[in-house]
Amino acid sequence: MTRKIIQEIISVILRVAFVVALVVIGFKGTTYCYEFGYKIFADEAKDPSPGITKTVAIVDGKSDKEIGEILKDKGLIDNSLLFVFQVKFSEYDGKLKPGVYELTTAMTPYEMIAVMAQVDLDAIDNPEDETDIVSKDQATLWDEADDVSNPANDALDIPVEE
Q: Where are the extended beta strands (E) located within 13-151?
């Protein structure tokens, strides 16, 4: 008889623990989803002005996710997946252009997106001129030059003046 009582008590404790675990997981998941959704539209810069300037080279054919990874690797944004959603919900969805850009950590993600989506009027007037398209070799050189030329600035958080 006491064995049945002990088994019933253990069974009740396990059920209560399971329900508590579900509530905690549900609360944490809901909180994460809310914060992620908020950040999509919050439009907050990573650092206060003036921020740190970084040179970013985007080659033709990069997806929004790959561009987000580049920006994250450069320290311009914190979350590349968040960047993908910010592009998707912006007026510039599908309009990011290859090129070399000067971006700062004081820019909001939407400002960065707008800069990378700008239409070059000269390229519209002369569509056969492909000098604005950045090759993978050029992008690698820009990335390496940025990494080599700015280590002291990155360590000291000093904005680059050009």
A: 53-58, 99-104
CA-CA distance, 59 to 97, in Å (whole number)?
Answer: 8
Instruction: Note if the pTM is more than 0.85.
Output: no
Q: Are 63 and 55 in contact (CB under 8 A)?
A: no
User: Could you tell me which of 32, 60, 22, 67 has the C-alpha nearest to residue 138?
Assistant: 60
C-alpha pair distances (Å), 8 with each of 1, 2, 15, 20, 116: 11, 10, 11, 18, 64
Do the Cβ atoms of 95 and 117 come closer than 8 Å?
Answer: yes
Residue 81 has a CB neighbour count (10 Å cut-off) of 12
- Is the domain spanning 53-156 CATH 3.30.1490.480? The answer is yes
pLDDT (tens digit, 9 = 90+) per residue, 66-109?
Answer: 999 999 999 999 889 999 999 998 888 888 888 899 999 999 88
Domain parsing of the chain, residue ranges: 1-42, 53-156
Q: What are the phi and psi torsion angles at 101 (to 5°)?
A: -125, 145
